[in-house]
C-alpha cells in the first residue's frame, strides 16, 4: 500500500468505483420500470455519439463527448418511440432496430475518419482501458496534498466524480417522484407528476452515466454495471431505500474485487500479465448476481418457486 | 459506380465473391429465423445470445492451443462460441423462471457479464502467445478480409442448414409464437419449442460471427423481420419476406463494402438493412406511414364532405374553409357558397339517410346492425332495399332541399 499503489492503482480503482455507483443508481429504477434494456440501447449508441462529437469538434475533450453521447441517447430514445408508434412495433424490436443501426453507423464513421492519432479506436470503445488511467506524478500518499501532483491526475477522475455527484444529487432531489412514478404511474399522474418527462430525464441521466463510465469500462460492460448490482440488490430486500444501498454496496464491491483480481489475480496464479479490469469488474458483478439468485432472501416471486412451473 | 457493379456481378475477385455469397446466405437464414423471434416478442434475447458467444471463442482458442493445435480453426472457435451462447440462454431462462427478476434484467445481466468474461479471456490470450492471437477481436465487429474458402463453406453450409431447420419447424414455431397457451393445449411442449427457436437463433449467430461480428449480428436477426412485418399480415409470408430482405441486404452490403476501402462489411450490411427498413416504414402499402397519412386524409375528406352536405340540407351557412373547398371542387356548391343542383340533390339524400337511420334505430333492436352507424357508412351497405323501403314508408315522401 505504498507509493506504487497510489501511482498505479488508486485512480483506476476510484474511477471504477465511481463509475459503478453512477451506473447502479439509475439502474435501480430502470430495472423496476422494466426498462433494463434501455441501458443496453444507450450503451450501444454512446459510441456513435462520441464519434460524431469528435468529428464536429476535432478534439476528445470531455464536454463535447458528454454532450455528443447524451445527444445520441436522446436521438435513440426519440427514434425508438417513433418506430414504435409509426410502425406499431413492440418496444424490444424497435430498440433492436434503432440501436444496432446507430452502432453500425458509428463504426462506419469511425473507420472512415482518420482517428489513428487519438485514442478512440473501436477496441477501446468496446473494452475500456481502466488500467491506463494511472497517476504518473504521484510519489506516495503525500501527493494527495501536493497541488502540483494533483494537477496531473488523469482528467477522467474529476469527470466521473462530477457525474457521480450529479447522479446522486438528482436521485435525492427527485426521490419521491421517482419512487411514486416507478411503482404506480397512474397515481403519479393523478398527483400531477410529469411522468413522461421524468422517464425521459431518467434515460438521459443513465446516458450521461454511461458516457462517463465509458472511459473506464467501455461501452458494452456498462450494461453489466447498469443491471447486475441493482438486480442483485432487488433480490436482497423489498424496500427501495435498502435496495439502493445494497446496489451501491454491490457496485463498489464489484469494482474493487474486479480491479484487484484483474491486477493481482493472475500474479497469484503464476502468470505475469494482468487481465482486463473492465471485464473482471463485469465478471465480479455477475458472480455477485449469481450468488444473489441462489441465496438472496427475496429471490422468489411471490407464489412462485414451490411447484415447478412448466 | 464501376467497382460496385463489378462486386454486384461477382466480378470483384475471389474473396469478394465468397463474402457476397456467404453474406446473402447468412442474411437469408438470419432473416427467416429472426422472424419467429420477433413474432414471439423476444427479439432482444438474441442480443444476449450474441454477446455470450465471446467467452466461448476465447475458451475454444485457449483449449485448442493448449492441446497443441493452432487455435485458429473456425469450426473449433464456432463450436466453443455455441457452447457459451447456449449456457447464456439457459441462464436467462433460469433467472426468469426461478427469481423475480424480469426477462429484460436477465438479458442485460447475461449480456454484460458474458461479454466482460470474454474480454478478460481475450486479454489472457493476448498475453499468452503474442504472435498467434489470430485476430480474435475480428469476432467483435466481423472481419471479412482474408476469409478462406473453408470459412465461406462453413457459412454456406451452416446457413443452408438453418434455413432448412426453419422450414421444417415452421408450423410449431408459428403456433408458439402466436398463441403459446393454445399450442400447449394442442400438446406441444412450448418450452422445448422455445429452446429450439433459440437454438436456431444461436446457430445463425455463431455462423455470422466471422462475417458481421457479435455486436451487429442482432441487427441481421431483428431488422429483416420487422421490415417484413410491414409488407404482409400473414405469418408464413413474414418468414420468407424477412429471409429475402436479409439475403438482399447481405448481398448488397457485401458488394458495396468490397467496392471501396474503409467500408467494413458488417456495419454496411446492417446499414443496408436499416435503409430497407426505413423505406418500408415510410412506403409500405398498408402499414406504412405514407399509407396511413393518405388514409387519414381520405377519412378527413369524407367527414368534411358529409358535414358540409348536412349543413346544406339544414340551410346553415358553411364557414369551414376546407369543407367549402371540398364541396366546390366536387361541384356541389358555387363559388359564392350557394348549392348547385347536384349539391342540393346529394344533401337531400344524406339528410334523408340520416332520418332513415333514426327510424332504423326505432325499428331494429339489433345493435349489431344499428351499431354500425358512424355517419360514413352508406345505409345501403347495412340494410336491404326492402328494409329501406319500409323505413321510407314510415318517413313519408322525400322533401327537396333549399326550397327549390
Automatic annotation (TrEMBL), chain A:
Domain of life: Bacteria
The organism of origin for this protein: Candidatus Rhodobacter oscarellae
Broad class of the protein's primary localization: membrane
Biological classification of the source: Bacteria, Pseudomonadati, Pseudomonadota, Alphaproteobacteria, Rhodobacterales
Gene Ontology CC, one term: ATP-binding cassette (ABC) transporter complex
Pfam families reported in the protein's UniProt record: ABC-3 (PF00950)
Residue intervals passing through the bilayer: 6-25, 37-56, 62-80, 92-110, 160-178, 190-214, 220-237, 244-262, 274-296
Designated name of the protein: Manganese ABC transporter, inner membrane permease protein SitD
Keywords, in A-Z order: Cell membrane, Membrane, Transmembrane, Transmembrane helix, Transport
TrEMBL record, chain B:
Gene Ontology BP annotations: response to zinc ion; transmembrane transport
Subcellular location: Cell membrane
The entry's keywords: Cell membrane, Membrane, Transmembrane, Transmembrane helix, Transport
Protein name per Swiss-Prot or TrEMBL: Manganese ABC transporter, inner membrane permease protein SitC
GO cellular component: ATP-binding cassette (ABC) transporter complex
Topological type in the membrane: Multi-pass membrane protein
Keyword rRNA processing: no
InterPro entries according to UniProt: ABC_BtuC-like (IPR037294), ABC_TroCD (IPR001626)
Tree of life domain: Bacteria
Assigned protein family: Belongs to the ABC-3 integral membrane protein family.
Signal peptide: none
Residue spans crossing the bilayer: 12-39, 48-68, 74-95, 107-128, 148-169, 238-256, 268-294
Lineage of the organism: Bacteria, Pseudomonadati, Pseudomonadota, Alphaproteobacteria, Rhodobacterales
Keyword Nucleus: no
Amino acid at each position: 500500500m505504498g507509493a506504487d499503489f497510489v501511482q498505479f492503482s488508486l485512480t483506476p480503482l476510484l474511477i471504477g468505483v465511481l463509475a459503478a455507483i453512477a451506473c447502479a443508481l439509475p439502474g435501480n429504477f430502470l430495472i423496476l420500470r422494466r426498462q433494463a434494456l434501455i441501458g443496453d440501447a444507450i450503451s450501444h449508441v454512446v459510441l456513435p455519439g462520441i464519434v460524431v462529437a469528435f468529428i464536429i469538434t476535432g478534439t476528445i475533450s470531455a464536454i463535447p463527448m458528454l454532450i455528443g453521447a447524451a445527444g445520441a441517447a436522446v436521438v435513440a430514445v426519440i427514434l425508438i418511440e417513433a418506430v414504435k408508434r409509426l410502425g406499431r412495433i413492440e418496444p424490444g424490436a424497435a430498440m433492436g432496430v434503432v440501436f444496432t443501426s446507430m452502432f453500425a453507423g458509428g463504426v462506419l464513421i469511425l473507420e472512415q475518419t482518420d482517428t489513428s492519432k487519438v485514442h478512440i479506436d473501436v477496441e477501446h470503445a468496446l473494452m475500456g482501458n481502466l488500467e491506463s488511467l494511472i497517476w504518473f506524478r504521484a510519489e506516495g500518499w503525500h501527493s494527495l496534498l501536493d497541488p502540483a501532483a494533483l494537477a496531473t491526475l488523469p482528467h477522467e477522475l474529476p469527470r466521473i466524480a462530477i457525474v457521480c455527484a450529479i447522479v446522486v444529487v438528482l436521485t435525492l432531489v427527485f426521490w419521491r417522484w421517482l419512487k411514486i412514478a416507478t411503482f404506480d404511474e397512474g397515481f403519479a399522474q393523478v398527483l400531477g407528476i410529469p411522468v413522461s418527462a421524468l422517464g425521459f430525464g431518467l434515460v438521459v441521466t443513465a446516458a450521461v452515466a454511461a458516457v462517463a463510465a465509458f472511459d473506464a469500462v467501455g461501452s458494452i460492460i456498462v450494461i453489466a454495471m447498469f443491471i447486475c448490482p441493482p438486480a442483485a440488490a432487488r433480490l436482497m430486500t423489498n424496500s427501495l431505500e435498502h435496495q439502493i444501498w445494497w446496489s451501491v454496496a454491490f457496485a463498489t464491491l464489484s469494482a474493487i474485487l474486479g480491479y484487484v483480481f484483474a491486477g493481482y489475480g493472475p500474479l497469484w496464479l503464476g502468470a505475469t500479465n494482468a487481465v482486463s479490469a473492465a471485464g473482471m469488474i463485469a465478471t465480479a458483478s455477475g458472480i455477485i448476481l449469481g450468488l444473489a439468485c441462489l441465496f438472496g432472501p427475496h429471490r422468489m416471486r411471490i407464489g412462485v418457486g414451490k411447484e415447478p412451473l412448466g | 459506380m464501376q467497382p460496385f457493379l463489378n462486386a454486384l456481378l461477382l466480378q470483384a475477385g475471389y474473396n469478394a465473391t465468397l463474402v457476397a455469397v456467404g453474406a446473402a446466405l447468412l442474411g437469408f437464414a438470419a432473416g427467416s429465423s429472426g422472424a419467429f423471434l420477433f413474432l414471439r416478442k423476444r427479439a432482444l434475447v438474441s442480443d444476449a445470445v450474441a454477446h455470450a458467444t465471446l467467452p466461448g471463442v476465447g475458451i475454444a482458442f485457449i483449449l485448442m492451443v493448449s492441446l497443441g493445435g493452432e487455435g485458429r480453426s473456425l469450426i473449433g472457435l464456432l463450436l466453443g462460441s455455441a457452447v457459451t451462447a447456449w449456457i447464456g440462454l439457459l441462464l436467462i431462462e433460469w433467472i426468469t423462471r426461478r427469481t423475480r427478476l424480469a426477462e429484460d434484467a436477465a438479458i442485460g445481466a447475461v449480456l454484460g457479464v458474458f461479454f466482460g468474461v470474454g474480454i478478460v479471456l481475450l486479454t489472457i490470450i493476448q498475453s499468452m502467445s503474442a504472435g498467434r492471437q489470430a485476430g480474435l477481436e475480428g469476432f467483435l465487429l466481423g472481419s471479412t478480409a482474408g476469409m478462406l474458402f473453408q470459412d465461406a463453406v462453413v457459412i454456406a453450409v451452416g446457413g443452408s442448414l438453418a434455413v432448412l431447420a426453419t422450414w421444417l419447424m415452421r408450423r410449431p414455431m408459428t403456433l408458439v409464437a402466436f398463441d403459446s397457451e393454445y399450442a400447449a393445449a394442442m400438446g406441444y411442449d412450448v418450452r422445448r419449442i422455445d429452446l429450439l427457436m433459440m437454438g436456431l437463433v444461436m446457430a445463425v449467430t455463431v455462423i455470422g460471427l466471422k462475417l458481421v461480428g457479435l455486436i451487429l449480428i442482432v441487427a441481421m436477426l431483428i431488422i429483416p423481420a420487422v421490415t417484413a412485418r410491414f409488407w404482409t399480415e400473414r405469418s408464413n409470408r413474414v418468414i420468407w419476406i424477412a429471409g429475402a430482405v436479409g439475403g438482399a441486404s447481405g448481398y448488397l452490403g457485401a458488394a458495396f463494402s468490397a467496392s471501396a476501402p474503409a467500408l467494413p462489411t458488417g456495419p454496411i450490411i446492417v446499414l443496408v438493412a436499416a435503409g430497407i427498413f426505413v423505406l418500408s416504414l415510410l412506403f409500405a402499402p398498408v402499414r406504412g406511414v405514407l399509407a396511413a397519412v393518405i388514409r387519414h386524409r381520405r377519412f378527413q375528406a369524407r367527414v368534411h364532405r358529409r358535414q358540409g352536405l348536412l349543413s346544406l340540407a339544414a340551410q346553415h351557412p358553411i364557414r369551414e374553409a376546407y369543407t367549402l373547398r371540398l364541396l366546390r371542387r366536387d361541384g356541389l356548391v358555387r363559388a359564392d357558397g350557394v348549392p348547385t343542383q347536384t349539391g342540393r340533390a346529394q344533401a337531400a339524400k344524406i339528410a334523408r339517410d340520416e332520418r332513415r337511420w333514426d327510424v332504423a334505430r326505432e325499428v331494429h333492436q339489433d345493435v349489431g346492425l344499428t351499431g354500425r352507424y358512424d355517419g360514413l357508412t352508406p345505409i345501403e351497405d347495412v340494410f336491404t332495399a326492402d328494409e329501406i323501403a319500409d323505413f321510407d314508408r314510415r318517413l313519408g315522401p322525400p322533401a327537396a332541399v333549399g326550397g327549390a
